[in-house]
Write a structure and sequence with these properties.
CATH superfamily: Aldolase class I
CATH architecture: Alpha-Beta Barrel
Strand content: 15-25%
Oligomer: single chain
Distance between the termini: 13 Å
Shape: globular
CATH class: Alpha Beta
Length: 250
């Protein structure tokens, strides 16, 4: 079964926030994405609310509950107490924990699982008591000892950070090398019982190779490239293009 597609709405929200106006509509474009076949919506509400606002979360939750009940809501973020309260109030199906600093422009590294194992275990236990799936942001090249520490947290999935792979859009040989790192980490993680997600700088051109090399890939979350393509092709057609790149029949 091909990986599922979760559409990250942060770039849509960032464009909206350039003006004190309600457009482009985060929920409106989320609705278009889900209607076109996306399997879920992802947001990363940062402390300064520079793109997704905290007030967007109940609206996205209601959109999924009322119109697309088979779809999933994925909230990403650093597990501060403020973030955890937001998550508990909006009850996403999946929470992706990332080790970002508050002012960080975008996620650019995974957890040091061995250093933060106790902290992540406590957070995962809290979220799983509320019925949420927990995914941990993971560097592309992680050894078995680190993944065993990740497994000890009780998390359900890892999300492979694919930024270095995406950065090789004009260097095919380097892309192959980065893809091999991701695949080996995925194989180690899968052997430990993790399901595998992936995200960051994934595009229509680079998704097919990733999907072939990691056939167990469960989900990708994509925002920047998908939003950029939507400016050219429209949201619905863009979602269909990304689904096709994942190998899903339309």
């Amino acid at each position: 079964m091909a990986a599922k597609l979760s559409v990250n709405l942060n770039a849509v929200a960032m464009l909206r926030n350039r003006r004190d106006l309600p457009w482009p509509s985060v929920t409106g474009l989320g609705r278009m994405a889900l209607a076109a076949g996306a399997h879920g919506l992802t947001v990363h509400p940062r402390p300064d609310q520079r793109h997704i606002r905290f007030s967007d979360l109940p609206d996205i939750r209601a959109l999924i509950d009322d119109e697309f009940p088979d779809s999933e809501f994925n909230i990403e973020g650093y597990p501060s107490e403020e973030f955890l309260r937001l998550v508990e109030e909006n009850e996403p199906e999946q929470v992706t924990l990332v080790p970002d600093e508050p002012g960080q422009a975008t996620s650019d590294h995974g957890w040091d699982f061995e250093a933060h194992s106790d902290f992540l275990r406590d957070v995962a236990r809290r979220l799983k008591r509320r019925g949420m799936r927990v995914s941990l942001f993971c560097d592309p090249d992680v050894d078995e000892a680190a993944l065993e520490a990740a497994k000890a947290t009780g998390a359900d999935r890892i999300e492979l950070y694919t930024g270095p792979y995406g950065a090789c859009h004009d260097a095919a040989e380097k892309a192959d090398s980065e893809l091999e790192k991701l695949a080996k980490t995925a194989e180690r993680a899968q052997a430990l019982g993790f399901a595998i997600n992936a995200g960051h700088d994934l595009t229509v051109p680079n998704l097919p190779a990733l999907a072939r090399r990691i056939p167990a890939l469960a989900e990708v979350s994509i925002g920047h490239a998908l939003t950029a393509d939507a400016l050219e092709h429209g949201m619905a057609e863009t979602v269909r293009r990304f689904l096709a790149a994942l190998g899903r029949r339309l």
